[in-house]
Amino acid sequence: MARFFAKRTLTAIIQVLIVTTIVFFALKMMPGDPVLLMLSRDGSSVDPAAYEALAKQLGLDKPILRQYRNWLTGLFTGDLGMSYTERRPVMDAIGDRLPRTLELAGASLLIAVVIGIPLGIAAAVKRGSWVDLLLTGISSLGQSVPVYVFGYILVLIFALNMRLLPSSGYVPIHRNPVEHFRRLILPACTIAFGFSASMLRMTRSSMLEALSSEFVRPLYARGLSKARVHMKHMVRNMLIPVVTIIGLQLGALIAGTVLCEAVFNWPGIATLLVKAISNRDYPLIQGCMLILSIIFIVTNMVVDLLYGLLDPRAR
Amino acid sequence: MTEVLLEVKELKKYFPVAQGMFYRRKGVIRAVDGVSFQVHRGETLGLVGESGCGKSTLSRVILQLFPRDAGEIRYRGRDVEELDRSQRSKLRMVFQNPYGSLNPKEKVFSAIAEPYRIAGGYSRQQIEEEVLHLLGLVGLSPAHARRYPHELSGGQRQRIAIARVLALEPEFIICDEPVSALDVSIQAQILNLLKDIQEEFGLTYLFISHDLAVVKYICDRIAVMYLGKIMEIAPARALYAKPKHPYTRALLSAVPGAADQLSFERIVLEGDTPNAIDPPSGCRFRTRCPYAEEVCAHEEPDLTSCGTEHFSACHLLHKLAG
Amino acid sequence: MNLLQQFSGNKKFVFSVMVLLPLIVIALFGPLIIRHDPLEMNTKRVLEPPSTDFLLGTDEYGRCILCRMIIGIRPTLFVAFGGAAVAMMAGSTLGLTAGYIGGKLGNVIMRAIDIVLCFPPILLAMLVVGLWGTGIINLLLVIGILYTPHFCRIAYSTTLKLRKAEFVENQRILGASTLRIVGKTLFPNILSPLIIQFSITVANGILLESGLSFLGLGVPPPHPSWGQMIGKAKNHIVTHKHYMFFPSLCLCLTILATNLMGDALRDVLDPKLKESH
Fold it and tell me: Do A117 and A224 sit in the same domain of this protein?
């Protein structure tokens, strides 16, 4: 067990190193001169002295490996450079935005679990009934509707027609907690929809497997009620699909968050990244990419470790 | 004595076994551990032994599917590694499992045509004629050419494998348990087919099997293998009538219904075959041999002559006469 | 013949063909059927409702929405199918090589493939597009790179299983070249899972392209694509619901059809998996 933990953690560390390296050198391979870009966004001529000074200040006059080392040390001390457009350190910009994105992703995950798993169990227990057909039907439709399309459907219904919730925007929690959560509901539900669909499918199939497996039948034979069998002996078997789905769909969750932030003008890290890409703000692109990839790698690691705890065969 | 077609000398094949977290090399499986024999033109040499004794590895090393670790393999006096492609195509193999030896995604026609296509230089017309001819030889109709292997029975598949092996005029064929995966009712048909084509084309067989009845029926000479070594080699009749090695006797004792006709004391094998990673010292069979003595643990017996063309690797040959 | 019957008896397959086939035909012959220039702006006829002249109305620049939708299929399908094809070719070649030849080369290939999987897919796509610019070819290559590992892993694991198969040994005994064994003997045997993965990749490619276009990082304007149209239509969602409705509906139908195609292929080509769904 300890060996499995050590091995998986080591893999994650190597992955982070590879990702950092690729992100750094991808930027270096870029066409165009970052110093020029910083000094003149419109391509007008630049004073050579100012150019020299800025290049020196950014450390871009040094050999590339030296730059790489500086960048890595900067990374460990939390210094990812200056954003051209935000005119402040990349780390600060990310620090503002990241918690909002994590809040959104976490809320949608929670909603997906709360919706997907009970419905999955219901579909499995009532296998073949109209409930099952309806639920599996909706869930397979759910996998075919892009996040943003579903988001606009929700906006149309709940914001524009029923006027129950605001259609977009963000209010900091310390300013107005009620408004904060009112604005969280729609985007979180949007991401949760596709997610709960796959959660439902996974729960359903693993529940069906568990219900038909050898160890359940003796429980009925012992006279335990159906409900007790379902509840008591399958919780552990339920956790595995949840962890699996999070692992499998993590990329989709990130994609969903990226798109959803755009739909609802949620000022998270993804909107920041999109803006950075449109503005060709390279240090900011680099920083966002890096932070999100590291979160991706670490989450994947945690999922694998949890999986190892739950299912010894996976080790 | 007829010409020696294939000669194997002191052949060795070890497989490394990797274990542990960092796959430190821990040992080797001595699958084939110093095997020597000759196969004469036109004869059938049987190779018998329990599963895991190295029979299949030996055949695959001869056909260069695995590189050998030591020893010589000579075909018509030349090392097999130096043969060119047309010479190499004279050495062929019929596999145990006709389900596995035919490509499931390939129709029968292509399967049989494949040797010609690999060799090159045959026209479409020639290939078609050859394929139909071969199908006829093994008792199948041209209609079978359009089928996929999974549409055929086990016996038909093995016939197709044989048709395929007959392409390009082979001389030496290794039959690796060719009938053991088949129903008993089909086995005799396939064995007869193998006998017929041997006569017709003057083929030489190395016939691998664990079934002594099958081997007795088809082989001229028989070699008995145990844990990567040959224990006894003799003409078929002599081996069955007067087996010298205790292991051979044990195998013959185990043939159902043969117990009361034995010319020697019955031996019932106990325990499992020892691990080939760490075989017993001296004679490999000593751990299961009822006659084992002090000397068996220290010295490895060589194959020694004990009759016409009869060789056995046992220290106690003189004591076990009878 | 047998396979054909199985497919035509599969409802999911029939449905997805009924959606995808016309779509492909429209994509191929789109320029011949449109009545208006999809790029031509007309400031006098902005955001019109559907009429006999503009069947689905006009967008914020007075361009025909229907015409833009017809032309907008092309980049999506081109990028998705092209990207999936690139990924399948690269992935199966790498996977077959790693699986059959194995050894150090195999290890290097598989480790290199793992690198791609360190990145969340959409972010890698955004990084590439962000650094090298938007454009159809870039999008196609991004999808190709993103999904190469999936094909490679499938090809690798199936090849590893088949490498020791007797029909492969049989070919080696006959002196067949490595290229022949890999291409003619092994490849047909690993094709089914690759085809299933292909249809999954096309669906993912459509989602990715339309998502990036929605964000404004995909097909560069003024050329249309469905995702980009939805992105533009969001500014008019209150007043002109039809502008968003039609591209969204078509996009959902297309993705649904591709997903069902994948399910149908799995049902027919890989019957073992059928039970678990």
Answer: yes
Verify whether the Cβ–Cβ distance B89 to C180 is below 8 Å.
no
Question: Among C16, C122, C124, which would you mutate to test the A interface (most chain A Cβ atoms within 10 Å of its Cβ)?
Answer: C122
Q: Which domain holds residue A50?
A: 34-79
Q: What is the pLDDT along chain C (277 residues), one digit of tens a residue?
A: 577 888 888 888 999 999 999 999 988 888 888 777 877 777 777 777 788 777 777 777 778 888 898 888 899 999 999 999 999 999 999 999 999 988 889 889 998 898 888 888 888 898 888 777 788 899 999 999 999 999 999 999 999 989 888 999 999 998 889 999 999 999 999 998 999 999 999 999 999 999 999 998 888 888 889 999 998 888 888 887 888 888 999 999 999 999 999 888 888 887 655 443 3
Distance between CA atoms of residues A32 and A288, nearest Å: 20
Q: Say which CATH topology domain B4-90+169-320 has.
A: Rossmann fold (3.40.50)
B72 with B97: CB under 8 angstroms?
Answer: no
Is residue A2 situated within a structural domain?
no
Q: Decide the pairing of beta strands B91-94 and B172-176.
A: parallel
Distance from CA of C121 to the nearest CA of A (A): 6
Q: Is A10 part of a structural domain of the chain?
A: no
Specify the pTM. Answer: 0.85
Instruction: Using CB atoms, pick whichever of B85, B97, B105 lies closest to residue C175.
Output: B85
Query: Which CATH number applies to C60-275?
Result: 1.10.3720.10
Q: Do C122 and A251 touch (CB under 8 A)?
A: yes
Give the CA-trace dihedral at C212, C214, C216, C222, to 10 degrees: 120
Distance from CA of C191 to the nearest CA of B (A): 10
In whole angstroms, give the CA distance from residue B64 to residue B23: 27
Task: Indicate whether A158 belongs to any domain.
Answer: yes
A234, A202: one domain: yes
Using CB atoms, pick whichever of C119, C210, C214 lies closest to residue A293: C119
User: Cβ–Cβ of C244/A152 closer than 8 Å?
Assistant: yes
Domain layout of chain B by residue ranges: 4-90+169-320
A17 assigned to some structural domain? no
Please tell me which of the candidates C122, C126, C251 has its beta carbon nearest to residue A149. C251
What interface predicted TM-score (ipTM) does this complex get?
Answer: 0.85
The maximal CA–CA distance of chain B, rounded, in angstroms, is 68
